[in-house]
From TrEMBL:
Biological process per Gene Ontology, one example term: methylation
Keyword Methyltransferase: yes
An example Gene Ontology molecular-function term: methyltransferase activity
InterPro entries: SAM-dependent_MTases_sf
Organism, as annotated: Oceanibaculum indicum P24
Keywords on record: Methyltransferase, Transferase
Official protein name in the record: Phospholipid N-methyltransferase
């Protein structure tokens, strides 16, 4: 077991150094990643070498981050949408929290990951598609989804794509539903400008150092004032008050 772990780490370090010399520091960091499944790590690494911007991490998230990002979700949340599921670390945590597999829709753009997810979670709906196309297809009735869990590398995406992903996800989210996003960065990976434009707010719900790199999770929800405005415009016009 120890030998296997060592072998994977050497493999990981060589691949990182060969393809991305400036990322040598990250390869050092990865030495301490807990390896649950050797084949998942290799799969992840292969995908990352093929498309580092799309994959956004050289190893799957750890259990601690998976528990944090799913901590406010339960079977009562109803349908859950997961974006960028990779090898399914967050998916497993969602099932452990009581979410019914049949209530899960998983969007993944990497074809190998999509195939793997379909095999691992046969009762879930796994869609091989770009999350920025969410609004183009009628995946749910409006306001049907209780929570969105995102493993997407938003920081490496252009603002227009981030806007498309969030608008698509919020089209399906219930009024009090939340979009959970993790980041390795020091602040929310969705800029203030984009949050303002979409009428959203972000709150950090926690951080874990038991993930390498350490990561934080943000809960993104609709601003109340925005809801008020929308609700008000839905009301029938009021009769003018007598002067
Ligand atoms: C940082 S990895 C996270 C994987 C997994 N959630 C985890 O934490 O281990 C990002 C994942 O998002 C997927 N992804 C990137 N861009 C995407 C897009 N536009 N639509 C759907 N999936 C995407 C990648 O293929 C990869 O599986």
């Amino acid at each position: 077991m120890r030998f296997e772990r060592q072998a994977v780490l050497i493999e990981l370090r060589s691949a990182v150094e060969a393809t991305h010399p400036p990322l040598q520091h990250s390869s050092e960091v990865c030495i301490m990643v807990e390896i649950d499944d050797r084949s998942d790590l290799q799969r992840f690494l292969r995908s990352w070498v093929g498309n580092p911007l799309r994959v956004g991490a050289i190893a799957p998230s750890g259990v601690s981050l998976a528990q944090l990002i799913t901590s406010e979700i339960s079977e009562e949340s109803g349908p859950v949408l997961e974006l960028g599921a990779g090898t399914g670390v967050f998916t497993r945590a969602l099932l452990a929290r009581g979410v019914d597999e049949r209530n899960l829709t998983i969007i993944e753009y990497g074809s190998d990951f999509a195939r793997l997810l379909d095999f691992r979670f046969p009762k879930a709906r796994v869609l091989w598609m770009d999350a920025s196309q969410l609004a183009k297809y009628k995946l749910f009735e409006p306001a049907m989804v209780g929570a969105v869990v995102s493993g997407l590398p938003l920081l490496s995406m252009p603002p227009r794509k981030v806007i498309a992903i969030l608008s698509g996800a919020f089209m399906y989210l219930q009024n009090n539903g939340a979009f959970y996003q993790f980041t390795y960065g020091p602040r929310c990976p969705v800029s203030r400008t984009i949050l303002d434009r979409l009428g959203l707010k972000a709150v950090r719900i926690g951080r874990t150092v038991r993930n390498l790199p350490p990561a934080a999770v943000y809960r993104i929800t609709r601003r109340r004032s925005f809801e008020w405005r929308r609700d008000a415009s839905d009301l029938p016009p009021q009769a003018p008050k007598p002067s």
